[in-house]
Amino acid sequence: MKPYLTIFLFILSAACFAQHKITGTVYDADDKKPLPNATVFLNNTTNGTQTNNEGTYSVNNVKPGQYELIVSMVGYEPYRYSVKVYNDIKIPAIYLKSKTTSLSGVKIKAREISKKDIRAFKDELIGRSRFAKQCEIINPKIIDINYNAADKLLTASTSDFLIVENKALGYRIKYLVNEFTRDEKKLYVAYEGYIQFEPMTGDAIQQQRWRRNRMEAYEGSSQHFLRSVLANDTEQQGFKIFELSPNYKRPSDTVINAMLKKYSDRAQFGSAAFRPNDSLAYWRDIQNLPKLLYYWSCELHDRNFIYTTDQRSLYAMSYPATMFITYKNKKSNKTPNSSFNLVAVNQPNSLGQWDTIVYLNELYAFFDINGVFVNPAAIKMEGYWGKQRLADLLPIDFEPGTDAL
């Protein structure tokens, strides 16, 4: 059932952050016996445990919100269970199915997999930021990679949890990559899987550096933005939101490409000497015009695009136009240009370091009390948020200034 929507008009209370526990039992699907030592965790959090000899588990200190409970064990298929936490919850019995044996390692399909393909996978999954340079994949042999040269499509998955040590943020990340796609024709990257964060141990100096880096990763992120929306303090936190309007001086790409082809056609005009260079230059200038524009005077506020739903701790983002979100952090000297500001979607380099363009693929993008989108396919992001990868990712249960190490 889809949640009903109402206008967002309140600030979260401290009571929303009470902590609860999730309990249950895990069994073998074949012999129905309890499974000890199975790993149970909440996807994309640091919150997890293992089953005891009786197959029971208790995940404690869970913040309210919507989660995926993941159960995994060597030799078994991982199990996923969606859970909404508002109080203590007992999960129905979970039965793990034995995993079909298959060969792991880098697979050669369509053509020989090159180091470039493997690097592309790592760059898209982990990222290219300065934090990414401090990440190390511990078990790369479990990565299965396939490249289709005809479609220019790179796909990958992992046969078990990929272990990544993020020495910049102080997390040991276990990531089961179910699906990874890099479409070079459509300039599209998507991946999906299960993630467990384990805080690394370190001395006082390392812990201080991790706290500092974690705050740097958090500030300006989508999680930071959504939490500030719920607290009704986006402006105080450094965010500004604007509506992007179509640039009516720029025709569609179809029209532009047709005109460029027309005036570039040597056969039509006989020779280069008679080619209408002025017209060709004109349409090249038109092609370079931005597709979208915004003005600093057209600022949006939370009430313009955020709604509550009939489901507790679940909220919705909806807006008929494209949104532009900019963030000014402590290190940024960026100030609004009072005359005219333009964002060129066809020229990504024109975006500022902390700028993000948000498109809604569906009518609503839902997110929970922790500031995490629960239907991420409903939203497309370009700019800062779109560039963030595993190296910059923080667990859902991260709390600025209070995260335990």
UniProtKB/TrEMBL annotation:
Domain of life of the source: Bacteria
One Pfam family here: CarbopepD_reg_2
Signal peptide range in chain numbering: 1-18
Xref: InterPro entries: CarboxyPept-like_regulatory
PROSITE patterns: PROKAR_LIPOPROTEIN
Keyword field contains Cell inner membrane: no
Keyword Cytoplasm recorded: no
Keywords linked to the UniProt accession: Signal
Protein name from the UniProt record: Carboxypeptidase-like regulatory domain-containing protein
Source organism per UniProt: Mucilaginibacter gynuensis
